Automatic annotation (TrEMBL):
Lineage: Bacteria, Bacillati, Cyanobacteriota, Cyanophyceae, Pseudanabaenales
HAMAP family: Phosphoketolase
Domain annotation Xylulose 5-phosphate/Fructose 6-phosphate phosphoketolase N-terminal: ranges: 38-398
SUPFAM superfamilies, sorted: Thiamin diphosphate-binding fold (THDP-binding)
Protein name: Probable phosphoketolase
Organism the protein comes from: Pseudanabaena cinerea FACHB-1277
Cofactor: thiamine diphosphate
PANTHER family, sorted: PHOSPHOKETOLASE-RELATED
EC number: 4.1.2.-
Domain Xylulose 5-phosphate/Fructose 6-phosphate phosphoketolase C-terminal: start-end pairs: 616-816
Listed GO biological process terms: carbohydrate metabolic process
Length: 819
């Protein structure tokens, strides 16, 4: 049912006028000339592609009669028709031709499906090359297995309509669009022999993350890295709208990708015979061009920015499907996006159209009597690990090597007394990361949006500079820390960095990402998607564990003296808490030694998203290394040196969670003892946020008995928290003493403030906390009026001082815990 060919140019030349927009389909036209396929090769490749398309339609429609051995009846059709046809034939078309090149050149290649709804176009060839049946033994390569294969697609208890983790060879689901390019580039860092072919949907190409990710080609070192071959799939439409890039002129489209630094090649048309020749010639040319670039760099040892190839493939949406349904255009239009034909159970005309459509692929020529793909087609696919669906790189845990780790204890701060010295918390972490990188120079990278120096991690540049392969200026030598052999990846796009890191981790390597707390929200949804991927992957026996995604959030809300209100938002923690307890961890280490202990643990872990919150400024230090290790192992605990309730019931429980918030809570206890020396205070610090949840809700959660022992069952709890206060209530709402838990945190009050003034505005300062205790402890309510007034006076004085001098009072800045 291919649409009627329209006027086109010859295969051997694009032959296009300036500003000409291409919307016609028919005989192929392509930039690369030649007809590399013999008649026999062409026949077999077309048959293999027909088999892929047949399977794609079968997945959407059929629950029985998988090979059309009988006439199609309504009982053979699924009751709910779900899935997406539109981009599937284009993707299986490319996949089929990549298999040819893998066999011819023994390529090490993987395939990333960018279009969000193109899974049928990938699942088909994955099944045909045998991998699917190898990992799912009940989905056998015969008629019964094919029946199960069809039925499970978009069916309860089966698989989704994207390239989910259940899809062998997949590392990118495409459920949320925009990340395929950055994921692809992450896979080839430090993978010199890998070619990652990424199919980019033209709807996906309209997203901001993808538009920026094209610049990833400027971060490839052709000596040590592999190559990405992007294929922009222009099929013209999204769900029911045209796509931008399909409606601009050829000249403008070519200029766009030349401007991005690529060498674009075009393949356009719909006639299968000429399109097979065109894509075969173009893909082979691109593979050889990539190899030539790499060979030159690896032979000469000269690292320079290369103009890597990319392909623009224009085919009709829903290619080879029904041309017209009920008088409406389908093939080559948005109506082909999802399910082109519906109403099978009560529309005999549509049922007949479906049968004709399925039979147009001639399944009787493709599958033998048992339902297996015939041998002459089976041999077109690579074997073993060379199959893109079985490449171990796409199941990165199989090739993951544990990091060689230095002893984190050697990087800590020596401490004689708690809360007596200040240290920049993240600076020693930078030294630790430096040595982690030094020991793992081919499988560990650090990622950050131009902020690693700002975040005090600059020690990493002592062993590896920032990667830079673009133009250098003379002044760059003065502190620029740039190198075309660098392993620190910096670009201002958090989206691109996160995509690189995820691609790197999913293919068996390790990484560390730091960013400002206010900007981590940029990648909220990417973290969401990665969490979902990990959660499903943990349930799939053949998916091996990958290194955890380790994310340092710094430059935090409480130290935004100069940036102000726009940079004050600790809400990323709320986003992470929404995800599965099986894959999320949140740590708020209050000092250097606890930060190092947490970082060491996170770098050794697998299959988690680890979020570490630690500010980069100078902060009081509370624990020596041995104490920090014990404290972090427990996740929370009583600080005996800051408590005076030993052997008796406390009058109040004071809790600090976060560096600044812990210091203010400590200062509040000292103020209270100055006014009420006999007041019994239990001081608790929380590092592992999920300890607050019951153990029935999170693996790290405390049992109710242990929680009650620490926090009491009836005493006031003043909880000073780094983030939004309601998050603590959400985690602890089922606890016995929740009604007495009074959480203080950020309440969207701030601007250009001194640290203490910002704390006062949000009622997390020492004075507000001490007053809160007076109001909550029954025996202080009658005798505390004078103390409350004195504390209020001090608070007012501090505010006035900040407004007059622009800094906090010296006794605040230099406060130390008395011993």
């Amino acid at each position: 049912m291919v649409s009627t060919p329209l006027k086109t140019a010859d295969l051997d030349s694009l032959n296009m006028e300036p500003n000409q927009s291409i919307s016609a389909y028919g005989t192929a036209r392509s930039t690369v000339t030649g007809k590399p396929l013999s008649g026999e090769e062409l026949r077999k490749l077309d048959a293999y592609w027909r088999a892929c398309n047949y399977l794609a339609i079968g997945m959407i429609y059929l629950r029985d009669n998988p090979l059309l051995r009988d006439r199609l009846t309504p009982t053979h059709i699924k009751n709910r028709l779900l899935g997406h046809w539109g981009s599937s034939p284009g993707m299986s078309f490319v996949y089929t031709h990549l298999n040819r090149l893998i066999q011819k050149y023994d390529l090490n290649a993987i395939f990333l499906a960018g279009p969000g709804h193109g899974a049928p176009g990938i699942l088909g060839p994955v099944y045909l090359e045998g991998t699917y049946s190898e990992v799912y033994h009940d989905i056998s390569e015969d008629e019964e297995g094919l029946k199960r294969f069809f039925k499970q697609f978009s069916f309860p208890g089966g698989i989704g309509s994207h390239c989910t983790p259940e899809t062998p060879g997949s590392i990118h689901e495409g459920g949320e669009l925009g990340y395929s390019i950055s994921h692809a580039y992450g896979t080839v860092f430090d993978n010199p022999d890998l070619i990652s072919v990424v199919m980019v949907g033209d709807g996906e190409a309209e997203t901001g993350p993808l538009a920026t990710a094209w610049h990833s080609n400027k971060f490839i070192n052709p000596i040590r890295d592999g190559a990405v071959l992007p294929i922009l799939h222009l099929n013209g439409y999204k769900i029911n709208n045209p796509t931008v890039l399909s409606r601009i002129s050829h000249e403008e489209l070519e200029s766009l990708f030349v401007g991005y630094g690529y060498q674009p090649y075009f393949v356009e048309g719909s006639d299968p015979e000429t399109m097979h020749q065109a894509i075969a010639a173009t893909l082979e040319h691109c593979v050889n061009e990539i190899r030539s670039i790499q060979q030159e760099a690896r032979t000469t040892g000269v690292v320079k920015r290369a103009k890597f190839p990319m392909i623009v493939l224009r085919t009709p949406k829903g290619w080879t499907g029904p041309a017209v349904v009920d008088g409406h255009k389908v093939e080559g239009f948005w109506r082909a996006h999802q399910v082109p034909l519906s109403g099978m159970h009560n529309n005999a005309e549509h049922l007949q159209m479906l049968e004709d459509w399925l039979r147009s692929y001639k399944p009787e020529e493709l599958f033998d009597a048992e339902g297996k793909l015939i041998p002459e087609l089976k041999e077109l696919a690579p074997t073993g690990d060379r199959r893109m669906s079985a490449n171990p790189i796409a199941n990165g845990g199989l090739i993951r090597r544990s990091l060689r780790m230095p002893d984190f204890r050697e990087y800590g701060v020596k401490l004689e007394k708690p809360a007596h010295i200040e240290v920049e918390n993240t600076k020693p972490l930078g030294v630790f990361l430096r040595d982690v990188m030094k020991e793992n120079m081919t499988n560990f990278r650090v990622f950050g949006p131009d902020e690693n120096t700002s975040n005090k991690l600059q020690a990493i540049y002592e062993v590896s500079k920032k990667f830079w392969i673009a133009e250098y200026l003379e002044e760059d030598a003065d502190g620029g820390e740039l190198s075309n052999d660098g392993r620190v990846m910096e670009i201002l796009s958090e989206h691109t960095l996160e995509g690189w890191l995820e691609g790197y981790l999913l293919t068996g390597r390790h990484g560390f990402f730091s960013t400002y707390e206010s900007f981590v929200h940029v990648i909220d949804s990417m973290i969401n998607q990665h969490c979902k991927w990990l959660e499903i992957s943990r349930e799939i026996p053949w998916r091996a564990p990958i290194a955890s995604l380790n994310l340092l959030i710094t430059s935090t809300v409480w130290r935004q003296d100069h940036n102000g209100f726009t940079h004050q938002d600790p809400g990323f923690l709320d986003v992470v808490v929404n995800k599965s307890a099986e894959v999320t961890r949140i740590y708020l280490p209050p000092d250097v030694n606890s930060l190092l202990s947490v970082a060491n643990h996170c770098l050794r872990s697998t299959d988690y998203v680890n979020v570490i919150v630690s500010d980069k400024q100078s902060h009081l230090q509370f624990m020596n290394m041995d104490e920090a290790i014990k404290h972090c192992t427990k996740g929370l605990g009583i600080w005996d040196w800051a408590s005076n309730d030993q052997g008796v019931e406390p009058d109040v429980v004071m809790v600090g969670c976060g560096d600044v918030l812990t210091a203010e809570a400590l200062a509040a206890t000292v103020l209270l003892w100055e006014h009420f020396p006999e007041l019994k205070i239990r001081f608790i610090n929380v590092v592992d946020l999920f300890k607050l949840q019951p153990d029935t809700e999170h693996p790290h959660g405390l049992s109710d008995r242990d929680f009650d022992s620490l926090f009491t069952t009836d005493k006031p709890i003043i909880f000073n928290f780094h983030g939004y206060p309601w998050l603590i209530h959400r985690l602890a709402y089922r606890r016995t003493n929740h009604k007495n838990m009074h959480v203080r945190g950020y309440k969207e009050k701030g601007n250009i403030n001194t640290p203490l003034e910002l704390a006062i505005s949000n009622q997390v300062d020492r004075f507000s906390l001490a007053i809160d205790v007076i109001d909550r402890v029954p025996k202080l309510q009658a005798i505390g009026a004078h103390a409350k007034q004195a504390l209020l006076d001090q608070q007012i004085e501090c505010r006035h001082y900040a407004f007059e001098h622009g800094i906090d009072k010296p006794e605040i800045v230099n406060w130390r815990y008395p011993h």
